[in-house]
Amino acid sequence: MQKKNNLILADENILKLLFKLSMPATIGMIVMAMYNVVDAIFIGRGVGTLGIAGISIVFPIQMFILALGQMVGIGGASIISRSLGANNFKRANLTLGNVYSIILVLSFIIAFLGSQFIDFFLEAFGATPAILPFARDYMQIIILGAVFFAFLVSSNSLIRSEGRAKIAMGTMIVSAGMNIILDPIFIFGFKMGIKGAAYATVISQALAVFYIIYYFSSKKSILKFSFKNLRIDLSILKEILAIGVSSFVRLVSRSIMVIILNNILSIYGSDVSIAVFGVLNRILRFAIMPIFGIAQGFQPIAGFNFGAKLYRKTKEAIKLAVIAATGISILGFLVLILIPNLLMRIFTQDENLISQGTFALRIIIITLPTIGFQIIGATTFQAIGKALPSLLLSMSRQILFLIPLLLILPKFFQLSGIWIAFPIADSLSALITFVMLKKQLREFNVIIQKEKI
C-alpha cells in the first residue's frame, strides 16, 4: 500500500501530477470559499448590516486559529513529503503524531483564553458598542470549536502531503457543505440569528474531523497513526515550527491587519465601513481560494522531488504552478472588475453598504493579477524547507507594507486611503517575490548544469 501511494508523487509527469493534485484541492477551496460567501449572505439577510460587521470583528481570531493549524500542518506536511521522497516512513509517521500533539495543546489554550477574555479581545479588534453584542454572540460559540477547526486545517495539509488530494477535498466538502445546509436551518428555521451561524460552523467542522479520523484509521493512508508518536520529538518540533512559521506569520499578520483596519475604519468611516470590509473580505477570498488550491497541490510535488534531489522536476513544478495561479488571478480580476455592484447586492439591500463596497472593491483588486505569483513564491520556499525566505515573503505584504500604509495614507486621503493601501502593498510584495524566486531558480539551474557535466 505504501508503495502504491508513494508512486502518486514519484512516477507521473509534472503537468499531469499538478493537475491531479491541484484540481481536487481547488474544488475543495472553492467550496470553502462558497461557504464563507453563503454564510455572510445568510447573516446579511437574516441579521443585517451589524451582523456582517460582527463576523468581521471576529474574523481575526478565526484567522489566528487557522494560522496555528496551517503552521503546524504545513510544517509537518513539508517534512512528510520530503520523508516520503527519501523513503523514510518512520520519520513521516512520527511527524504525524507530533502534529496532532501540538494542535491539541495550542487549540485548547486558545479556546480557554478566548472564552475568558472575550469582550477584551472584541473591543481591541475594533468592536463598537453597536457591533459588540453581535460579535460576542458569534465568538463565544466559535471559540469553543477551535480544536475542530485547527485539527481540520492541519489534517488537510497532512493528507495532501502523501498525494491524496481527493481525500483532502472530501474533508473540505463535508465541512463547507454541511455548513451551507445548516446555516438557514439554524438562522431562519430555529430563529437563532448570528448564534445559529456559529453553531452551524462548529458542528460542520466537527463532522469533518470525524471523517479525517476515519481516514487515518483506514488502510487508505500511507501514514499510520500511533499513540507512541504523540510524544514530542524536539528535532521534528523545531523543523515543523521553522517551516510553518511563515504561514503562521502570513495569517497572523493578516489578523493584525484586520484588527488595525477595523479600528481605522471606525475612525475614518463607520459601522457600515466595517461591514463593507466584511463583505469584500469574503468576495476576495472566493477569488483567490482556487490559487491556494494550486499551491496545495503544488507543495507536495515540489517537496517530494526536492527531497529526492530531482531538481529539474522541482523547477518544472514551480513554473507550471506560477502559470496556473497567475491565470486564475487574472480571471478573478476580470470577473470582479466587471460586476462589483451586482456582487455587493447579493449580500445586502443596504444602499450605503453597496455604494461604499463597490467603490472599495474596484480599488483593492487593481493588483489582483499578481496574487497568484506571490502565493506560489512563498509556497515554493516552504515546500523545499527554506524557512527564512518563506518567512520574509509571508511578512512582506501585511507587515512590511500594508500595515504601515494603512496607518499613513488615511491621514492624507481619509477613507479612500485605506483602500488605496492594498494595491500598493501588493505591488511591492510582488517585486520582492520576483527577485527571491528568480534567485532560487538560478540555484536550481546551476545544480542541473553540474549534473550534466
Mean pLDDT: 89
Q: Helical region count? A: 17
The total domain count is: 1
**What's the alpha carbon Rg, rounded to whole Å?**
21 Å
Order of helices and strands: HHHHHHHHHHHHHHHHH
Which structural class fits the helix and strand makeup? mainly alpha
* Largest sheet properties: none
What does this structure look like?
This protein is mainly alpha-helical and about 450 residues long. It has one domain (about 1-450). Helix content is about 85%, strand content about 0%. Helix 6 (about 130-140) runs parallel beside helix 9 and helix 15 crosses helix 17 (about 410-450). It is globular and about 65 Å long. It starts with a helix and ends with a helix. Mean pLDDT is about 90; it is low at about 1-5.
Quick structural gist:
By secondary structure, the protein is mainly α. Helix content is 86%, strand content 0%. The protein has one domain (2-452).
Topology of helices and strands:
Elements lengths: L1 H9 L3 H33 L2 H37 L3 H28 L1 H7 L7 H11 L3 H16 L3 H25 L3 H25 L16 H35 L2 H37 L3 H28 L1 H8 L3 H14 L6 H13 L3 H22 L1 H43 L1
Keywords summarizing the entry:
mainly alpha, 453 residues, 17 helices
